[in-house]
Design a protein that fits this description.
This protein is an alpha/beta fold. It has ten helices and eight strands. It has two domains: 69 residues, no CATH class; 176 residues, Alpha/Beta hydrolase fold, catalytic domain (Rossmann fold, 3-Layer(aba) Sandwich), CATH 3.40.50. Strands 1-2-4-3-5-6-7-8 form an eight-stranded mixed β-sheet, with helices on both faces.
């Protein structure tokens, strides 16, 4: 179904039942719709991994690990992505004596389910931390950054954190989704309410924002963002810098966009240099 038809259906439903429209938009907001496939240049590293299964919310979640297990580094993918996108980084992490750990979020890659939320990310990260942590470092792309910081806020330990095209404010994702579908006032407003009532129940909604209460965290950080990113806008990186000040290194690039930045050799050099300094 096209975005135009979805928008029309949700706004029409909202005229009769705003609550039903809100639930419809909320469900779509957490549905990747399509899964990313393993690319040919990722296959070798993907096949080298030791895979294990976790059960999260009744869904099978696939995790991956490489190396001896010493000095674990968690790699967290973003929306409509998968762990194999970190393939260019994995051998270089191992060359530093680090042991990469990754997972496919529910509804992504080789994991089960059709939907995922920030709470699912937090749950999987927490479970992997219980098994392999504390982490020497965490590297998170896009939406993965929001899941990582929520998990860190709730007890996961990491020595260093790298965000690549990372989300600084969870509300940015909600607003971007509303804009993408062109949701009207009724359906859009109900989506906002569902996020607050379902995801943030019993907690401060701002806890979903990586830049909320920066004093809670004392680890060194690196934020990498492309000024031509049209998915997670570069202003999100500026919010990271404003919140964390001098303890955050900010690396900006141009012409790489939202996805290619993750495999760009010069970016990898900078990320690996940051991790090696630990």
């Amino acid at each position: 179904m096209s975005a135009t038809l979805l928008r029309t259906a949700l706004d029409t439903t909202a005229l009769v039942s705003p609550r039903a429209a809100g639930w419809g938009a909320f469900a779509l907001f957490h549905c990747p719709i399509r899964r990313s496939r393993i690319r040919p240049d990722e296959r070798e590293q993907h096949d080298r991994a030791v895979t294990e299964q976790l059960t999260v919310g009744g869904r099978s979640v696939t995790s991956y690990r490489w190396g001896s297990g010493e000095r674990p580094v968690l790699l967290v993918h973003g929306w409509r992505s998968r762990a194999s996108r970190f393939a260019p980084m994995i051998p270089r992490l191992q060359a530093l004596g680090l042991s990469p750990v990754a997972f496919d979020a529910p509804g992504h890659g080789d994991s089960g389910g059709r939907t995922t939320t920030i709470l699912d990310y937090r749950e999987v990260i927490g479970r992997l931390h219980d098994r392999y942590g504390p982490f020497e470092a965490v590297v998170a792309h896009s939406l993965g950054a929001a899941g990582v910081f929520l998990a860190l806020r709730e007890g996961v330990k990491a020595g260093r954190v790298v965000t690549v095209a990372g989300v600084a404010e969870y509300g940015f994702l909600v607003k971007a989704f509303r804009a993408q579908l062109g949701l009207g006032r009724w359906a859009g407003g109900e989506l906002e309410r569902r996020v607050a009532e379902v995801l943030a129940v019993g907690r401060d909604r701002a806890d979903f924002d990586p830049v909320h209460r920066p004093e809670d965290f004392d680890f060194p950080m690196l934020a990498v963002h492309d000024r031509d990113d049209r998915v997670v806008l570069p202003g999100q990186a500026d919010l990271f810098r404003a919140a964390y000040g001098e303890r955050l290194q900010l690396l900006t690039t141009r012409g790489l966009g939202h996805s290619r930045i993750l495999a760009e050799p010069t970016v990898l050099d900078h990320v690996l240099g940051f991790l090696a300094a630990a």
